[in-house]
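Pasting as-is:
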Amino acid sequence: MWADLVLRAERQHGVELLAWAALSLILATASLVVTKGRRRESALLGSFATQLALWALIVGLVGAIELQRLTMRDLSSAARLERLTWARAGFDVGIIGIGAVLGGASYVLARSQRGLGAAAAIAAQGLALLVIDLRLIAVISR
């Protein structure tokens, strides 16, 4: 019975990753459409959309691989999954930090709208991935 809960949580995690990838791709497309509809293109929205689209591809690939490799887990395998997910959560915090540093450097050093757009997208992706990973941790750590 416990292995069923872990399997269900892993499946939900993979579906959430795919849903976030799809939403990111939709937001990237909408940002590009808004940008192209103007006479003067927005560097901020353009780089934001580019980053969203790239992250959507990566997150979608990871989600698809996770869903394809689902198996029932024993206790030691579930413990490894928990440790791996905690490591991924730490990586997500690092992604948020990278976005913040890139945004600060873009603003202070270069006054770059393009850098600010990319930084905002990176930080948003890191935050969303952190929430998704923490949801998995909350279920498997019980």
